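User: tokens in, sequence out, please.
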């Protein structure tokens, strides 16, 4: 499969509001673009692209409100185990 095709046709954030998402599928590969506070993209062969759930997000005034979220992104965030945070701060084990 040519990953450049997915990169080229993945929707841009110019027309997405918080909680909006676009999903593309080619065979069993699914690419999802979701707008949280920032653009989030995920690629999976193991998740159902039609499953949508909600997540709680804090507003500027401190209240929390539910927004729509693709299940694949929620599952990733629940299972990542802090590994990405370690990568962000430049840590890691060698």
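Assistant: Sequence out:
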């Amino acid at each position: 499969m040519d990953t450049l095709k997915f990169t080229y046709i993945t929707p841009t954030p110019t027309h997405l509001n918080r909680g909006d998402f676009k999903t593309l599928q080619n065979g069993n590969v699914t690419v999802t673009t979701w707008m949280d506070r920032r653009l989030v993209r995920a690629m999976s062969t193991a998740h159902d692209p039609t499953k949508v759930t909600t997540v709680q997000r804090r507003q500027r005034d401190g209240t929390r409100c539910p927004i729509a979220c693709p299940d694949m992104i929620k599952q990733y965030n629940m299972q990542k185990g802090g590994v990405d945070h370690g990568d962000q701060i430049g840590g890691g084990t060698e």
